[in-house]
Each structure stands twice: as C-alpha cells, then as structure tokens.
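Take a careful look at the protein record below. Let me know whether the structure tokens fit the sequence:
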Amino acid sequence: MNPKPEKLEQHTKEIMEIMLLAQSSFKIVDFIKRERSGQEAIIIQQNKYFNYTAEMNWRIYVIEMAKLFSTSDKAHWYNLQKLINKFKPDGEFGKLKGIDKYSIVIWEQNLELEKEKIQNLMLQRDKLYSHTDKARSHIKNELSFADANELLDVVKRIISEIHIVVFGKSYAYFLNNEPVLELKRLIHALIKKQEYDQYFQVQDCLVNNIDPKEMGFPE
C-alpha cells in the first residue's frame, strides 16, 4: 500500500504546532530574562508579574518540547524519533520519494548530538513540571538560552527538509501575532507612562519652588 503524503503533512503540522507553542513561550522567557539597562530593566525587575510570566512560559517550553524529544511511543504520538522511524524501509512513509537513508542518519545524529540537552529537558519535565518530585531540590535547569534555541532548530531542520523534499514548499517558523510582541508593547507603554508621570511631578516641583533633585528626580 502506498503511503499517503497528506497523512504525513498532517503529522508534521501537529509537530509544528507543538514547536511553535514552545517557541512562542521561549521568546517571552528570552525577552524578560535578557541582560538590559535603563528604565526597561527597572520595570521588568520590579514587577513580580514579569518574573512569574517568565517562569510559567519556561514550563510551557519544557513540557511542549519534551513531547517532541520523548522516546515513548505511547505517551507522545508526535515525538521526532517516532517520525524518523516512519521513514525507515519498513515504516509507514518508507516508500515516499525524497527522504533517503542519509537524511535519516543525519536526523538521528542530530538527536544524539543533543542527547545531554534532551536528558536535562526530560528531567525537568518529569521531576519539576509534570510531577512534583519529593527530591526536586537537586533538579536544575542546565539549558542555556542558546541550548533551548538549538533544540527548537533541531525540530525546524527535520520538518524543513520534509516539507521541501516531499512537498516542495517551505514553512514559516514565526507567527504574525507572537505574544512576545504584545509584551514588548506593554513594557514600552509602561516606560512612556513612567516618563509622563515623572515629567508632571517635576513640573509640580518647579511650580512649588522645590528643587526636583531634592525629590530624587534626575537633572
């Protein structure tokens, strides 16, 4: 029986939706936690909600990415290894033209190269977020932002090759309405409000013959 390309397309679409959710959450964490200075840094550091948002979105990133890097056939239907296996000679998509054994070798090598990152990702998911382990205090996030982004890229490389080789089309890996864009607009608005409030406070000092510096305002 010949494999149906539309079934593969639906399968990769599901994987992409998982990855895009993880990516959107990662972008929020990356934006909030990056090093910065000035009013933007002060607003983010003083607002507990932003730190909470970063923590919650990191959890989403870990949980969603763990679905893709799990090796459990039963628990996670859309994991990458399961997809790769479907392209092997005895797999569901083994007879589709375009994806050869060299692609499969490279994909599996990519997963092997990221083994330590994946292990830490799964450890966080299993011991911190999906379950509350009684010995959770020793579980640490060992993924840098560069590591987290690289795991996203692993997914993109595999799905990109499938889309280009099998379907002859590329895939957009960003959303026009990324939540991080709204976050940036919100912080920008808070900065503007702070500047607006400070301006009128300084003017009030001047009207009342008070040196603004005495009130803690900069020159």
Notes: The chain has a mean pLDDT of 86. The two ends are 78 Å apart (CA to CA). Residues 176-219 form one domain.
